[in-house]
Amino acid sequence: MSSARQPIGVIGTGYVGLVTAAGFAELGSDVYCVDIDAEKVERLKRGEVPIYEPGLAELLAQNKERLHFSTALDEALAHARLLFVAVGTPPTYSGDADLSAVHAVVAAISPSREHALVMKSTVPCGTGANLQRVFKQTGKEDMAYVSCPEFLKEGSAVKDFLHPDRVVVGDDGGWAGDAVVELYAPLAAPLVRTDVASAEMVKLASNAFLATKISFINEIANVCEGTGADVVEVARGMGLDDRIGPRFLQAGIGFGGSCFPKDVDALKQLAGNSGYHFQLLNSVIAVNDLQKRRVVNKLQKHLGAIAGRRVALLGLAFKPETDDMREASSLVLCARLQADGASIAVYDPVAEEQARRLVTGVDFAASPLDAVAEADAVVLVTEWRELVELDWSAVAGAMRGNVLIDGRNALDPQAVRAAGLIYEGVGRR
Ligand SMILES: NC(=O)c1ccc[n+]([C@@H]2O[C@H](COP(=O)([O-])OP(=O)(O)OC[C@H]3O[C@@H](n4cnc5c(N)ncnc54)[C@H](O)[C@@H]3O)[C@@H](O)[C@H]2O)c1
What we know:
The chain is α/β, with parallel strands linked by helices and 429 residues long. The chain is built from 18 helices and 14 strands. The protein has helices spanning 15-26, 38-45, 56-62, 74-79, 100-108, 127-137, 157-162, 175-184, 196-227, 231-239, 260-273, 279-303, 329-339, 352-356, 368-372, 385-388, 392-398, 413-418, and strands at residues 8-11, 31-34, 67-70, 82-85, 116-119, 144-147, 167-170, 191-194, 310-314, 343-347, 363-364, 377-380, 403-406, 422-424. The strands form 3 sheets. The chain has a 6-stranded parallel β-sheet with strand order 3-2-1-4-5-6, with helices on both faces. A 6-stranded parallel β-sheet has the order 11-10-9-12-13-14. It is globular, with a radius of gyration of 23 Å. The structure holds nicotinamide-adenine-dinucleotide (NAD). The site of nicotinamide-adenine-dinucleotide has 27 residues, from helix 1 and helix 5.
């Protein structure tokens, strides 16, 4: 790749920041990364990758000459005009997005007509306008602002960066938006060039729509359970309609992760704050909350009382191919089962370190078979390939009981039953 590409700054080196940095470095830019987490920055400087994301370590290593890491903004400000902001925007107690990290970044930048803030973090619609007001109040009115929301999916983030479905650039038509468009040009992705507020809304509306699709199929699954239909067949029949499409139609124990729950909530709050009651999103959230708990009803159906029972949870991360535990369904399940007096064994191929910070009082097993040993019931929580491809006869042999709940409809019921286990999925016959 050409080395004449413009250098950029990336502020925040989490899942989005690191992938963005590695991706633009791959396209030929020098990338100046900044994070307030000194330990993370030291690890990155040593060539370590603090998160699990397939392909990221290789991309970072391949482009290490172009990647610079620091806890201070100075180097980024000195070398780059475009400062991509990828700091966290977690939910507050009210469900609104916590923008304190974004404001900390704005406060740390000295007034400049040379620089532009390019917002990758997911922020409520109206944030760009508010930040531009802050620019004016703090003598930074010459600084440009661009909204460039990120749509990558953890687990396939590198591929998503290099082959995006679309690039959305929201700005007022100045130099900075043009520069962002130019940066993304080699990816030849469909471009949506729009205003800041619309770009912000594209992100929130996209995540809310996908979450709605998941809650919709989960409700269909629940109706299937009462009517004898099989949701896997139903979803296949629906998904072949190209107006509907097959993706996000897998019924299961609900969505989690660092984005859907908080972004759906943030859009609901945003609507409420502007005087609109977003009825549909209330239901999407309520269905998702209930869906995680329905697993416990299924366990009760087979085991009777949960107290004193041994339950093994296979998979902890909110989805396969990530170590991200934020809002993972496993957290709700652990807490619910513990409250009912179960003893719990858990196994995850990569998320154990993250999970240990969030879950106490469970036995972390070193292998799936260790986790299921002497279990009365097993729940497949995350459909890691290693777990989907387990030898179910060996699982049955190690268990005390024989109940298997497939929380992701990822298993072949016949194979599981042939191993002597009771199979129960979500909405399956
Ligand atoms: N994770 C995803 O799949 C995903 C996808 C699309 C969009 N997003 C959005 O992107 C944003 C970042 O998400 P993430 O998952 O990468 O978060 P993350 O928590 O993994 O990373 C955020 C990073 O920002 C750093 N940080 C916080 N305050 C800072 C400051 N003042 N200066 C410099 N660094 C600072 C943190 O130390 C951390 O390393 C969020 O708004 C999120 O909603 C995330």
